[in-house]
Amino acid sequence: MKKYEELAKKIIENIGGKENVNSLTHCITRLRFKLKDVNKANTEVLKNMDGIVTVIKSGGQYQVVIGNHVSDVYSTVLEIGNFQAEGGLNDEKEEKMNLFNKFIDIISGVFAPTLGVLAATGMLKGFNSLFLALGWLTMDSGTYQILQAIGDSLFYFFPIFLGYNASKKFKTSTYLGMVIGAALVYPSILGLMSGAPLYTLFEGTMFKSPVHVTFLGIPVILMNYTSSVIPVVVATYFGGKIEKFFAKIIPDVVKTFLLPLFTLLVIVPLTFIVIGPITTWASQIIGTASVSIYNFSPIIAGILIGGLWQVFVIFGLHWGLIPVGILNLTTLGSDTLLALTFAASFAQTAVIMAIFIRTKNKKLKSLAIPSIVSGFFGVTEPAIYGITLPRIKMFVISCIGGAVGGGIIGLTSIKGYQLGGLGVFGFFNFINPVNGDTSGVTSGLIAVGVSMAISFGLAFIAYKDDEPVKETKKIEVTKNPLMTKEVIGSPLTGEILPLSQVKDDAFAQGALGKGLAILPSEGKIVSPVDGILTTLFPTYHALGVTSNSGAEILIHVGMDTIKLEGKHFTAKAKQGDAVKKGQVLLEFDIEGIIGAGYEVITPVIITNSNDYLDVVETSSSDITFGENLLKVII
Predict the structure, then answer these.
(1) Which entry of 26, 27, 212, 541 is annotated as an active-site residue?
(2) C-beta of residue 632 within 8 angstroms of C-beta of residue 577
(3) Total number of domains in the chain
(4) How many CA atoms lie within 13 A of 2 on its CB side?
(5) pTM given for the model
(6) Element of type H or E holding 366
(7) Cβ atoms within 10 A of the Cβ of 363, count?
(8) Are residues 308 and 441 in the same domain?
(9) Active-site residue among 212, 318, 541, 556?
(10) Residues 378 and 521 reside in one and the same domain
(11) 68, 88, 183, 208: which is deepest, by most CB within 10 A?
(12) pLDDT per residue as tens digits for the range 293-334
């Protein structure tokens, strides 16, 4: 879409270029990159870019949080970057990850692409259950049956969809995963389970299983794999390994049809005989374990999961719980685990509502309105990253509200019967599709109401604007009623140039903030203010200083100098250090940088310019260390 072309170009440029991307997917609010070298990404530039909420590095992924229009930005990034949809750009070796990060990465890669349509079909099932409970439809009506077919289709044939996603994730043939999934839900196979068993295996154990059929004399334990999750993912992983093995020994001239033939002949029977039963038993154990933890104390479980859910979302750890919820739905017919998180998004939204009422900051009010709207539909990342997380007390209050709501949900034993819509549409998940019982909806409304009331009340009492508007006592104002809040000294000695001369649109057009550029005559950067060295890029080509009064100053030596990977730069301070105005922070070799083919013109900008009425530039043409460069006006 042309609307997002410029944003997409800047994202690709600041993640290190398309050659730095191994793969790209997206979820409800964020682009999820797998980068070859995270250090090549300009994280601070991306964070401060219009159209981007924030950047998160978690679970081995570089996550650019966009907001509600992420799918449009994703499509544009795919088109401009010539990336493969939901897959990799190439097969180059990816960064090493520990087992936990690898698990999160696999789960998110397999499940994230289906979440939108999974929520949509779940909502349809919820509406259908509501229509049934209200007596508007009957189970034998054609309208009910067709709506139910739409709602049930994805979940019933879930192994086929997950097989496709898993094959993408494991970089194997997409049709391999789909065929494995289709075989697992093949109607004739399911029909074999209705007859009398030949004999029973594992008598006297929890794994007691009837045998209805054999394959080449080997007993096959048939199970109902419709709506299953783990079997097809594991089978596709091993199927990819088998495919690679046969690819090495099958001649190219017949590989087109013999490779999938031999792969399927091995992996599908192996799945029915070994992988399917073992993973199904594992799924049942996981489901039973989660229910046991819940049954130990539903209230404590609700408080912990409801209170920490938003923290999990920030770090991407919620992906570890979503499959457990789906397993509960498939093995038990209902889920209590994910139900405990339901009030969290409403608690977050209530906090934003309180901030909207209390704040006098017009920019904050403008951010709050879309965050409230998206929050009621269950999408809270814009609220979290844009408003509450920077004001940590507000975020903690939203977690308290989520904990209270989770505790009430646990106390009232609310169950979810489908993984449907988020936010207000999530109430339909609590309607029992078997008997039309809507008591879960009533209890859910109570939990959400109490959660929102507590969150709103605490936030309303505790919130204060970051820079409160103070009443001025009879201050004499002459010609100019504006006040200079802070003077930013020059971090460099050299010639002053306008930002428009910087060969980078983000700087030149002021998208990253107001300021000036300096052509340095001496290879040294000093702190322009008293404050904190909040950012020092690993390649030392750029740094950020936050003054004690809140001005955020970005100093970027040259353009594309990140490619020097730190060569010709020497850091004289560490990220996180408290610094004094005039303190040397960085030294760089001007001749070495120019000799390597890069310019040294250095933008000095106030990245949070929008928080102020204006940023006034010096009128000088040359400047030395510490001289007045910019004035921040309130």
Answers:
(1) 27
(2) no
(3) 4
(4) 0
(5) 0.52
(6) helix 362-376
(7) 10
(8) yes
(9) 556
(10) no
(11) 183
(12) 788 889 998 999 899 888 877 765 666 677 777 777 777 788
